[in-house]
Specification:
- α5 packs across α6 and α6 packs parallel to α7.
- This protein starts with a strand and ends with a helix.
- It is globular, with a radius of gyration of 18 Å.
- Strands 5-2-1-6-7-8 form a 6-stranded mixed sheet. A two-stranded antiparallel sheet has the order 3-4.
- It is an alpha+beta fold and 202 residues long.
- The chain has 2 domains: 121 residues, no CATH class; 64 residues, no CATH class.
């Protein structure tokens, strides 16, 4: 019996892609394969080749429905935003997502519907039940991606850019609890960055 899963990639610009993987989707197989063998470049190659029958240690050894079986309508599904992906992604027993800006894999048991950092413990236990683990929320992703995008915009005012650099540093260097993010809509805009940074420093 197949253990079905999905594999997604969230790009720095906030768009996302997703493919289906039919066999052995539990963390001790697909999770371990992804964590140990697939960085951003390799994960993107999975998206290029579309839906997967059986994942392996490399793109070359992975069996794809289109490339290897000649099937059609098996291209990666595309999403215009994190919100679009979160609401409309295909759901199977397990889900994996690589977040380019964070350079990390996350995993979701669809019965729980929350994504967690893919760790050796989760791979070993085939379970994401960990009271100390913090979920990856849509709000956290949106704010992180916003900071990355603004840093690359030439028209951003120097003061605003400096603020975003501070936010970027906090994300990368501190163990931030994603659930502590502001729910206020201002968190999504540059005007809310000062309050956002102040909150993170508390």
């Amino acid at each position: 019996m197949a253990t079905r899963s999905t594999i997604s990639l969230i790009y720095k610009n906030g768009t996302a892609k997703q493919v289906y993987a039919h066999w052995d989707g539990y963390p001790s197989n697909n999770g371990e394969l992804l964590k140990n063998n697939y960085n951003f470049t390799q994960a993107n190659r999975l998206m290029v080749n579309g839906d997967i029958s059986s994942l392996d240690e490399s793109v070359e050894d992975t069996t794809f429905y289109g490339r290897d079986h000649g099937e059609t309508d098996v291209d990666a599904r595309e999403f215009i935003s994190v919100s679009d992906w979160n609401k409309n992604r295909q759901k199977e027993e397990w889900a994996y997502v690589f977040v380019e800006s964070m350079n990390a894999w996350y995993v979701c048991d669809e019965d729980d519907n929350m994504f967690y950092l893919l760790t050796k413990e989760i791979i070993k236990n085939n379970s994401v039940t960990n009271e100390e683990a913090e979920p990856l929320t849509e709000e956290f992703l949106d704010m992180f991606l916003l900071s990355t995008q603004i840093l690359n915009e030439p028209e951003v005012e120097p003061a605003e850019k400096k603020l975003m650099e501070v936010a970027e540093m906090l994300f990368k260097e501190k163990n931030i609890d994603p659930t502590c993010l502001m729910n206020d809509a201002d968190a999504y805009y540059v005007e809310g960055v000062k309050d956002f940074i102040s909150m993170l420093k508390k």
